[in-house]
């Protein structure tokens, strides 16, 4: 298979349409169809399911996807290496991030990095822990922000300790000034995010046998805070989620110290492209400097 064939395959996957893939690659739809048909003939199996709703991978295509993505990544890494040898700093870095890390850190990281490396493009992919993990495994992103509990078998470097706190409606009074006890939390009604959205908070809830949400299946932080603001209950969440954002809620420390460890994750550090290595170093150095300033 040629590099163009790999590009066609990935464009069809991303666009879920031969017509849209043709537009992205500046080819005709018939050229896309011919390329896909040639791939399927060469491989001896169908890669895509064609339907009125769109074009989707077969199970066989799904199995091949990460390998074809790695071929494309290898070509990108090669071009970056050639540019670096020629004295140019260029390339593409794709970063996966969960919501609160994106809101709190990405603007300043992007501004600083682009100032030093204006010819390196940064693509941001935002999703849940599960999304970022799978994007890394499939080669969709090069680097990812995750919690240590969700990094699985990925290589990673710890960069930040984020406290778990209680968020309560405005005017909420605790039995003890300045903190809330576990026993008091057990008496509360909770707003919780659905399973898989915040593994660290779920771990704390299970650890102390705290009551579940009782009908709330929230998928994002801001919706959970909005329900708390409306008096629907209290919630536990990482401090990073609401830092520097003036919500009309009470932010209350727990009597016990619980934290999530945020990590910078990647599949293998020894195969990172030159541009990715520079971004990795920039992120790690930025957080090291941040930690030193906070001491």
TrEMBL record:
<dbReference type="InterPro" id="IPR005119">
    <property type="entry name" value="LysR_subst-bd"/>
</dbReference>
<dbReference type="Pfam" id="PF00126">
    <property type="entry name" value="HTH_1"/>
</dbReference>
<dbReference type="InterPro" id="IPR050950">
    <property type="entry name" value="HTH-type_LysR_regulators"/>
</dbReference>
<dbReference type="InterPro" id="IPR036390">
    <property type="entry name" value="WH_DNA-bd_sf"/>
</dbReference>
<protein>
    <submittedName>
        <fullName>LysR family transcriptional regulator</fullName>
    </submittedName>
</protein>
<keyword id="KW-0805">Transcription regulation</keyword>
<comment type="similarity">
    <text>Belongs to the LysR transcriptional regulatory family.</text>
</comment>
<keyword id="KW-0238">DNA-binding</keyword>
<dbReference type="InterPro" id="IPR036388">
    <property type="entry name" value="WH-like_DNA-bd_sf"/>
</dbReference>
<feature type="domain" description="HTH lysR-type">
    <location>
        <begin position="1"/>
        <end position="58"/>
    </location>
</feature>
<keyword id="KW-0804">Transcription</keyword>
<dbReference type="InterPro" id="IPR000847">
    <property type="entry name" value="LysR_HTH_N"/>
</dbReference>
<dbReference type="Pfam" id="PF03466">
    <property type="entry name" value="LysR_substrate"/>
</dbReference>
């Amino acid at each position: 298979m040629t590099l163009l064939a790999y590009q066609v395959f990935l464009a069809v996957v991303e666009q879920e349409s031969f017509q849209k893939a043709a537009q992205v690659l500046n080819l005709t739809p018939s050229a896309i169809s011919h390329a896909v048909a040639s791939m399927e003939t060469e491989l001896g199996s169908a890669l895509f399911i064609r339907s009125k709703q769109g074009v989707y991978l077969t199970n066989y295509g799904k199995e091949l996807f990460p390998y074809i993505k790695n071929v494309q990544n290898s070509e990108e890494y090669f071009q970056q290496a050639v540019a670096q040898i020629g004295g140019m700093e260029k390339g593409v870095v794709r970063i996966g991030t969960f919501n609160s890390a994106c809101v709190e850190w990405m603007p300043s990281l992007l501004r600083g990095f682009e100032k030093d490396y204006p010819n390196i493009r940064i693509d941001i992919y935002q999703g849940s822990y599960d999304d970022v993990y799978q994007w890394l495994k499939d080669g969709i992103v090069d680097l990812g922000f995750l919690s240590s509990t969700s990094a699985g078998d990925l290589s990673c470097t710890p960069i930040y300790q984020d406290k778990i706190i209680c968020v309560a409606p405005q005017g909420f009074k605790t039995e003890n000034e300045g903190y809330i006890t576990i026993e008091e939390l057990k008496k509360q009604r909770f707003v919780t995010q659905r399973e898989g959205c915040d593994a660290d908070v779920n771990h704390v809830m299970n650890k102390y046998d705290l009551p579940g949400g009782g009908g709330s299946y929230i998928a994002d932080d801001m919706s959970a805070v909005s329900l708390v603001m409306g008096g629907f209950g209290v919630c536990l969440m990482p401090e990073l989620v609401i830092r520097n954002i003036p919500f009309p809620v009470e932010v209350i420390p727990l009597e016990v110290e619980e934290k999530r460890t945020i990590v910078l994750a990647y599949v293998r550090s020894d195969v990172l492209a030159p541009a990715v290595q520079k971004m990795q170093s920039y992120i790690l150095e930025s957080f090291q400097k941040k930690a030193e300033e906070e001491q």
